[in-house]
Amino acid sequence: xxxxxxxxxxILVTAGLGWMTLAGWYRTPGFEDTQxxxxxxxxxPTIYDQLALVAMDGLFWFAIFGFLTFVVVxxxxxxxxxxxxxxxx
Length: 89
Description:
Layout: H1 2-26, H2 47-88
Helix pairs in contact: 1-2
Protein name: DUF7314 domain-containing protein
Organism: Salinirubellus salinus
InterPro entries: DUF7314
């Protein structure tokens, strides 16, 4: 169980750091303004800006779903499989 938690935690930290870096660049208009959650204000985005915005959203959802998968789903499936094998025996 500890190895699944560490895998999920590593995904959360790594993807979260990537998201925070990109969100800091693209979603922080100023120090005194809304930070990390403001809509990106790019008048004419280049291909690199568009890739960064897509990667930012992907990293956010990967952090959420990756963590939940390794911390909740996989251990839950193992418990269900264990309970089903005990009930058959």
